Protein: Aminopeptidase N
Organism: Actinoallomurus iriomotensis
Amino acid sequence: MARTTSRALSIAAALATIGLLAPTATAYAGHRAFTPGLPGAGDRYFPDMGNGGYDAQHYSLGLKYDPGTKAIDATARITARATQNLSRFDFDFSGPLKISKLTVDGRTASYTRTGAQELVITPARGVPQGKVFTVDVAYSGVPQSINDPALGLSGWIATHDGAVALSQPFGSATWYPVNDTTHDKATYDFTVTVPKGLKVLANGDPAGEHTQGANTTFRWIDRQPTASELVLMAIGHFDVRDTRTATGLRNITAVDPASVPAGNKTAADDFNKATADVIDWEQKIYGRFPFSTTGGISVLAPNVGYSLETQTRPVYARRSAGALPSATLLSHELGHQWFGDSVTPYVWQHIWLNEGFATYTEWLYDEQHGGETAQQHFDDAYKSASTDWNGKVADPGRDHIFDDLVYTRAGMTLHQLRLAIGDTAFFALVKAWPAQHRYGNDTTAEFTAFAQRYTHKDLRPLFQAWLYTAGKPAL
Ligand SMILES: [Zn+2]
């Protein structure tokens, strides 16, 4: 599902049809040396993230979680397609988890772990280009979160009664071996066993739960392509609601009772209903919801305190018990399901395409629900002393991917675009962009070229001032 792969394969197919390549992949592979896949995926902000030489297609993750020791006993089966003749390849896998067994297509493979996150695997035989292969890894231990000095806490995070995985921009590698790049999306299934009483939520659709003795096993299947930064795992004593929105979308929400004031008996129902209402409003603005289910999770995690647009079901992590997330916050994280989740930045420098749209979703929500208009939000931000005018929105720098400029200033950029092309074109564009790029990746250049099709005006000066130049643009 990596964009580079399909492009490379289609070029190979085109060459084959005009006779420049041997007709079969095997014959082609036979003439080429087997070489190691790259240890990175070409993201200059995070050169170690992701890997080259293969396209991950599916992750099947099995976990047994022990709340006493906080340890997991786990298996990961990764199905991937080789995009070159592979003598060796890497996964990202960080922290103290210990591997007890690793096989490639059922044969024991040798492996080493180097640097902060590289799991380097040498299969018994090379994997020919085009071949789909399977890697099984058995591992265990207590997963550790990452506390990045600039980007904060991510990865597997212990909560008061369980754990939650929040992995933007990195963090999935703290609990499973992964090709940890935004541009190698894959499908997932999860089989998680916990002591009876605990509940487990993940991305996608529930596929049954089964109690045997003192344990319950939960299964989830995530059938739509998912970037590793958006993979969800939440374990705790949740109050779960499984309903449908007014438009019929399945809506599974969970409230950690410790995240709301004691005695709030309606929190689980209120949260479910608020999520449904926001999602149905967003479907009117952005088009059909891109995934088979939606929802959200309210959880107490005192060392986190942020929300994340984990695919299908965002996590709202609270530092202390308090009010449920506001409709505005719901609109931000659920807006990301179109902008960030279904359409994902190819590399992290393009994150304004996530956060600008999520911020603008908040402004549109207010505008259409009796609050401030988007123009008023723009004017407030333009005047405010706290708006961040440093740096370039389209290239904020590794340590600044969560700075205000990729939120507020990026939202302001979209408002300027709306003023330039008019409401009719703008609201057509915000439906067409996620529809045409569904489950794919995006870049700033692709977006600006796309927007240009909606007007005869030359948009280059607007984007030059708002995306590519540091400092406060003149109006
Ligand atoms: Zn956001």
Summary: The first strand starts at residue 35 and ends at 36. Residues 150 and 399 are 5 Å apart (CA to CA).
